[in-house]
Amino acid sequence: MNVGMDPIDWWVMGGTILFIVIYGIWKSRGSTDIRGYLLSNQDMKWWTIGLSIMATQASAITFLSTPGQGFGDGMRFVQFYFGLPIAMVIISMVAIPIYRRLNVYTAYEYLEQRFDLKTRTLGALLFLLGRSLAGGITIVAPAIILETILGWDTTITCIGIGILVLLYTVSGGTKAVSQTQQQQMAVILIGMFVAGIVMVWKLPAEVGFLDALDIAGKSGRLNIITLPDSWSNFVEDRYNILSGLVAGTFLALSYFGTDQSQVQRYLGGKSVTEIRIGLMFNAIFKVPMQFAILLVGVIMFVFYLFVPTPMFFNEQEREAVVQSEYGSQYLELEQEYAQLDAARTDAWSTYLQQKKSGNEAGRASAMESALAVTAQADSVRKLGVGLIERREGSRAKDQDRVFLTFILNHLPIGLVGLLMAVIFSAAMSSSSAELNALASTSLVDIYKRQIKADGSDKHYVSMSRWLTLGWGVLAVIFAIIAGQFENLIEYVNILGSLFYGTILGLFVVAFFFKKVGGDAVFPAALMAELLVLALYFLPKISPEMFESLQVGYLWLNLIGSTAVVVLSLIWKALFGQSEAATQGDEGNAL
Amino acid sequence: MSDQEEDQDLQQLFPFVKKWKTLYAFVLGELVVLIVLFYLFSHAFS
What we know:
The complex is a heterodimer.
Chain A: H1 7-27, H2 34-39, H3 46-57, H4 60-73, H5 83-102, H6 107-114, H7 117-150, H8 154-201, H9 209-218, H10 231-236, H11 241-258, H12 260-267, H13 272-305, H14 315-323, H15 327-357, H16 360-390, H17 399-410, H18 415-451, H19 457-484, H20 487-512, H21 518-541, H22 555-575
Helix pairs in contact in A: 1-8, 1-18, 3-8, 3-12, 3-13, 3-18, 4-13, 4-17, 4-18, 5-11, 5-13, 6-7, 7-8, 7-18, 7-19, 7-20, 8-13, 8-18, 8-19, 9-13, 11-12, 11-20, 11-22, 12-18, 14-15, 15-16, 18-19, 20-21, 20-22, 21-22
Chain B: H1 3-13, H2 20-44
C-alpha cells in the first residue's frame, strides 16, 4: 500500500490551503466594529450565504465517510437528507423574518425577547456545551484517519488545523469564515467531481459506467429508497424514507434554525431575500450533492470488485489483531478472502461477458454465481471483523478509510494533493464556523448580556477575538485528548443531538405558541432535556430493563422538541402564568 | 414587510420567479421528483 505523498501533492495541498488562509485574512481585513466582526456588516449575497451554509455542514468526515458509506451500505444514506428541503422552507418562512426584524446577533437573543433571560441563557448554554465538544471532533476525526493511513501524528495534525483556522477566524471573524468557505467549497466540489471521473476512468476496460451501475444494483448498493420493515426498525433505523422525512426534518430544523454555527452564516445576509435565496440554494442542491458523493462510493465498490481488495481497510487495527492471540485465525481468513476476492473478480467478469453476448440464461446463471461468491467473501470478511472486535479497545469499522485508501493508491500525482486539500478544506470550513459561533454566543449571550454591558465596540471586538482564540485552543486540546480514545468520538457525535431537540422545542414554542411564556417553557425545557438524557442513557446503563426505550438518536430531536411543547402547555394549564412577553420590535443590539 | 413587498424583492433578484410561494413549491416539488427518480433508478438496476 502506498503510504506517502509525492512532493507535487504536497505543493498542491499546501498551496491550496495557504492560498485560502491568506485570501481569508486579506478579504476580511479592517473588521474593527462588532457588527462587521460578527455579522459581516450584513453585506453577504445569497451565493456566499448558500455556500457558507453548505460548507459549515460538510466536515472532513463527511467527505471521508460518505463514499465509504456508499461502498459498504449503498445509497440509502441519502434519505437522511430528505428532511432538509422541508426544514429550509419552514425556516425561510417562519424564522428568517423574525430574526431579521429583531436584528439579533445570535438565535438565543430572540429567546430573551420572546421569553426571558433565563430561557435565553439555557438555550445558549445547551448550544455552547454541545458545540464545543463537537468542535474538537471536527478537527480530530480526519486527523486520526490521516494518522492510520499516512502515519501523520494526530496531535501535530490537530494543532496544524487549529492554527490555520484560527489565523483567519480570529483576525476576520464572520466575514473571513464566509469568504474562505466559498473557496473551500469550490475546492471540495472540484475535488470530488474529479475523483468521481477518475474512478469511472479507472474501471476495467470491459466495465462501462452503466455496467458498473448494473453490478452495483445487483449487489444491493443502489438501495436509495427503503422502507422500515417493522415498528422497531422504524425507530431504530436511521436511514429509511420515513425517518428521513420526519426525523430528518426535525434534525434539520434544529441544526439550521437554532444552531448558532448555522444561524450566524445567514444573519450576515444583505436582506431577507438574499438570506432566503441562500437557504433555497441549499434546499435545491444538497440532496443531489449527497447523491453524487454516495454514487462515488458505489462506483468505488464496483472498482474494488475488479482489483485486489484488502479484507479490512484499517491497517492499524489489522496489525493489532495479527499481533494478538487471534493473529493466526485472522491470517487464515485473510488468505481465504484473497482467494474469494479473485474468484469474485472472475465471476463478475463472466457475468459481463454473458450479458454482452446476449445469452440471457448464461447471464442469469453467471449473476447467481457472482452474487454467491460475493456473499461468501462478505461472510469471511465478517468473521475477520468479528476477530478484530474481540480485541479489547478495538475499532472494527473501516468505512471512513476506504476512500482515502483509494485516493492514495489509485489517483494520479497532483490529484492526491487536491483531494487532501479537499479533506483539510472541509475540516477548516466547519471548524471555523463552529469557533466563530461559539465566540459570538459566549460574547453576546453571556459576556455582553450578563458580565459587561457597557463596553465599547473596540472592547467587544477584542473580546470576540480572545474568545475565538480561547474556544480554538480548547477545541484543539479536546481534539488531542479525544484522539487518544477514538471510540469516544462516536459518543460525542451523538452528544450534540441530545441537546438539539430541547433547543428546537424552545424555538417552536417561541414561534407558534404565543401565549406560552418563559415561566412555563423554562421548566418544560429542563424536564424535556432530562427525558432525552434518560431515553439515551437508561438503555445503555441497563439494557435488559430499558430495552423498550431504545430509539435511534435521530429521533431524540423530535422527542425532545415535542416534549418541550407538550410540557410547557401542560405547565401553563396547571400553574398558569402571566401573558407571554410581547415580541419586541427592537433588537437587543450591541 | 407584506407578502407583496417580499415578492417584489424576490422579483428584483430573480425576475423569472414571481412569488415566494412559487419558489417554495418548486423546492418541495423537486424533493418529490427526486424521490420518484431515486425510486425508479433503484428499480432500473435492481
